[in-house]
Each structure stands twice: as C-alpha cells, then as structure tokens.
Request: fold
Amino acid sequence: MSSTPQLSSPDISPQGPWHRLLEQPLFLGILLLLPIVWLLVPVPIDETRYLAVAWEMRQTGEFLVPHLNGETYAHKPPLLFWLINAGWLVTGVHAWTARAMTLLCSIASLLLVQRLTLRMGGSEAAARNAMWFLLGAIYFAAFANAIMFDVPLTTCVLLAVHGLVDLAEGRTRRGIALTGVAIGLGILVKGPVMLLFVAIVALGAPWWSDRLDGRRARYFGAFALAFLLGAALALAWAIPAALHGGPDYARAIFLNQTFDRIEGVVGASTHSRPWWWYFVIFPLMLLPWPLVIRGSWSALRALARAPALRLALVWVVPTFVAFSCIGGKQPHYLLPAVPGVALGLAFALDRGALRVRSGLFAWFLVALGLVLAAAPYFAASRQRLGYIEDATPGWGIALAVLGVLLLVFVRRARTPMLPALAMLSVALLVKFAVIEGPGQRYDLEAIGARLAQAQQRGQAIVHLGWHHGVYEFAGRLKQPIPAIEDPKLLEAWAQQHPDGLVMTFYRRFRFRATPVFTQPFRGGEVSIWNVREALASGIDPAVAHTRDAAEDFSDD
Reply:
C-alpha cells in the first residue's frame, strides 16, 4: 500500500532492553489481564450459561448440536464451546481454561492489528500505538479475558480484513483462503453477523485500496470465491446440525436468531433499543480515547486519501450505521469494529494529525474514583443496589490515586501507552473489587455443591423460572435442573416428588417458608426450599407481584 508522507512521529526510541520490554503492549497487557483468568469466578448470567453449554457437550458427548438444560441451544453456533472442550482435554475442567481461550484470541487480535497497521503503510511506532489504542479501549480491556463470543469474533474479523488486503494486493490464492476460512470461523463463532463486518470492508475496497485499477472484476470474483468457501465451511456444520436437531432447531439457526435481532428500529424482539442508542454507547466503549485524543479537522482532511485511514473509516462508519438501523442492540455487538478505530487513530497520530493529552482523563479518573468510594454508603439505603454496598470504598480511592498519578506524569503521557495502561488498571481494579466485595453474589460454588449432593442422593430438584443453566457448571451437575414457569404447576410436580426441592432466584417467587439454603445472587438472592414446606407456606404476597425488571436474563 502506498503511504502519505510522514509529518511527524511521537515515538521515542527505547533506551535499553528493560525499557524496551516495559513499552511492549503485549507484555504489559498480559501482565494486567492474566490475573483475572484465575481469580474471577464465572459471572452470571452469560458466562455461567456458556460454560453450562460446554459442560453439557462434555457430559452427553453431543458436539454437533449444543444443548442447555437438556434442550437444544440455538442462540449461538458451537465453535466457542468446541474450543472450551478442547482446552479441557489439556487442563482438565476449569473455568479459567475458557478465560484463557478468549485471552489468547485477544492476544491474536493485538498482533493482527499491529501487522495490519504495518501493511497499510504505518511505521513501527504506529503499529505499536495501534496495539495500545485497541488494548486501552475500555470495552476491549473488559472483554479481553471474558467468556464471550465477541472476543473470538473480533479475531476472525481481523483475519478476514488481512485476507481482503491480500486480495487487494493481488495475492489471490492466499487472500481467498484466509478470507474464506476467517468467514467460516466467524460464522461458527457467532453466526451470519460475521458477513456484515466482512462484506462492508470488502465492498469498500475500491475506495480504500489504490491497487485495484484494472483489477476490480478479478478482486470481486476472488471475494465471491472466498465468500463461498466461508459459507461452505459454516454449512458443513449447519446442515448436519439442522438435520440432527430437528425442524425447530433448524428454523432457529437459519432464521430466528438473525431476524429476531434485525427487525425494525423499534420492533426487535431481542434487546430492542432506539436508533440513536449507539451514538451514546460507542464513545463510552472507546474510553479513554474520546477524552485523550486532540486534533484538527484540517489536519485530518490532509490525510483523507491515505488508504489506512480510508480502511478504518469503511470498517467503522458503515458498520456503526448498519447496527444503528438494526432493532436489537448490545454494546458488545460493536466490539469487532474497535480494531478499525485503533487503526485509524494510530495512523493519524503517526502522521501528526492527532495528539495525545491525558489531563482531562486523569481528572475523570479522580472524580470516578471518589464517586465509587462513596457508592457503598449511598447504596446502603437502597435495596436494589445491595451488591454495591458489599464493595470496599478503598477500590474507589485506589482509582482516584491512579488518576492523581496520571496527573503527575501527564507531561510524559504524549503517547497512548500511559492512558491505555491506566484504563487497563481501571478494568483490573473493578474486577478485583467484584472479587473482594460483591463476588459472593456471583460465586455459585456453594449452591452448586448443595445441588450436586441432592442429585447424588437421588433427590429431585425443580427451578421456578428459567435459570439459564447458571448452576450446572458450578456444581458439575450430572443432570440438568428442570424449570417450571408457572407456580401453579408446582403442586403437580410435588405430588410426584414429595421429598423434592424447589429453588429460584426470581423475587416474584419468594415463599414464606424458611429456605434450607440461601445466598446472595446478583441484585437479590437464590434460595432452596423443601417443596412441601414451600407449598404449605405459599408465596409471600409482598413479593408475589414483584417484577424482576432489574434483571436482564435474555441471551445476548
């Protein structure tokens, strides 16, 4: 790729091996991200649900069609569950194995964005800064070691973009293979949404590449072959799975899970939010950079023809518009677009069109730390915020101190390294705060062990309300726990299982009887009752009509 003449470079040459090591994004990033792999328990509802699906795969030996709570699970394709099970073959069954798998995907994404910056004409300093921009974005930092599909999906999107660059450069065979495999893997990670990310960048190639003159037909023909290769890889799983899972499962994986999310701006049935929602959320996902980056439109306009900047714009802007028009919205849906932002920022910084100023961000950290330090006292008088009350104010104070330190060194924070490290430290401090304080509300080992003991005794268990498999992995349960949505059906179940147990974490199903076991869970508690005692006492009328509106238990 041709490059625009370099105006200036903010890079300062390292002075020695230790200095060089301490400036490496991968080294410092892994240093800050790795502890959570072992220390943080799986967070309900999402992480526990995905571990439960992987656990049922292992228990049943059914690897073609994922299952949750004994029923087919059509919300996500199986690749992440396959990766977790592959990891378990090496490490044994641990939650940290799944976190390590996603962290490896995050490391791969950092290396891929570094290489992409170099391929698009950026300097070594720009490539290193692209890693800092990606690593320091709060949503990437928060999700880098989380058991979520969007992390490996981001890696697949980056692989596909490299393949498209190959196609644009005339490396047709490698481009077809790399793009096609990346498309297939991305679909197996999270479904057809992969096609949206790749197609937008692919169709914009005549604008962001200067090597397609006279070769456009060949380029688009090669991309069509890559698309077919990716579709073939995905269908190699989807068709047998649809036949094995039955008509309802086939309809769900081919139609429902896509179209439920792309209905009209107001009418989506899953995570429906207004069209403007991402205009508020996306800048927050990119923190600290909206508070740190300074520049001028005139300097950016001077780079308007640079292929790297055009690729970044094609990658991010149409994707943002497309997802804004889709009814179903979640913040992490846009995670695969964040590397495009990192590429654009690093290139513009390298060419002198942007500069880094960390003072405002440092003051933001001080203010945020003081708010978090006061939050437990504020939450004490509000029942819905009980989980905040469990946190220690010291973590907020530590965050404020981090902001003060950044203020002290603000004159040295002329590259993305210090603000990126500060935001990584914020993510680490917040997760440590969860482990130390509200962690008991997410740690299900005790109740999982109690349920496993009941199953070993042959005691029947039923759950009031759908529970998303939150207990299965924690207790390594051999059998799924059935769910009853209507309390009126509980009496018939109790007649068949008079010595059984009934449990729930929904507030609207609280019995007046004393539970045989209870523990805090998220914003409420999870409890177990003897079913006969529960029916005899009845549901507490004070909570019988309480809606669990504060809990979002739908699949992402």
